[in-house]
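pasting for ref. prot 1 ->
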Amino acid sequence: MIYIVTIRSCAVVLKLTYKGGKFSKLEVKKGTLEGEYLKQIGLLIPPLESLIEEWQGSWGNRIIYKQITE
């Protein structure tokens, strides 16, 4: 499955790909990740697809995960 992740505080849009329920790939679709955001990007990426809903709840509307079809 593929998800679009919007980080509102730095206007970055990421594309996350999961294969077999596990994180597989990260692409930056808009903006740039620099400094502290780049150092801590792992905190924003759930290692398992099944955790996305839980992580969305912990971030509120600061970080938005949206499933897409391609």
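and prot 2 ->
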Amino acid sequence: MPEEQHEKARKYVKELADFLEKTKNYSNIVTVYDSPYIQTRKIDYNRKEIKFDLKGQYFKDKLDVYIEAKNYKKSVDLGSHYKKFVKQCFSIWVREQEQISSDPWIAWFFFIASHPFYCTKTFKELKSLDFLTEVLEEIDSNDKSKNKLQEYLSSNNEKIIETFLKNIEILYITPNYKFLMANIPAYFDELSLFTNLGGRDNNE
């Protein structure tokens, strides 16, 4: 990444971290640009390191939140980035389920973009089993997570898939939205960011 783009990305991620903390819904936020960045990384089912842009904790359920942030002025390539994000998160999810012996591992995965994308699909469709199936069909056959979806479904472990899909969130945080959140009444402090945005259709 050219130095100018790197600095632009760093600035956006830092601003986003400040913004999320000001909503009072998230705490312990760290970014990939902090030292050390190890808190923002997870290991996937192929034992590859996946680095997220931010990590925090949602105050209501105390679950970890892993965030990928894309500051694009247009929707170009955002769809492919989102597909990659879903694939990586699923691979991490699979590995974590197989690391534990009691309660299942649960976390939130946020894809935050500054511009809408996949405008022919609703948020619900982008978090559906059909979409996950489509994403996994496109990945390399050497990826060990490729067949885990059907394995879970055929062994009556649909709950693992349902929880994963429920815990993916797509958020549009435009400059105008950040301005409104910074200036609207305090009752928004009691709402989660994804409750504010997640109910909207993707074409809004």
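Strands lie at 26-31, 41-43, 49-51, 54-58, 64-70, 108-113, 168-172.
The CA atoms of residues 91 and 145 lie 6 Å apart.
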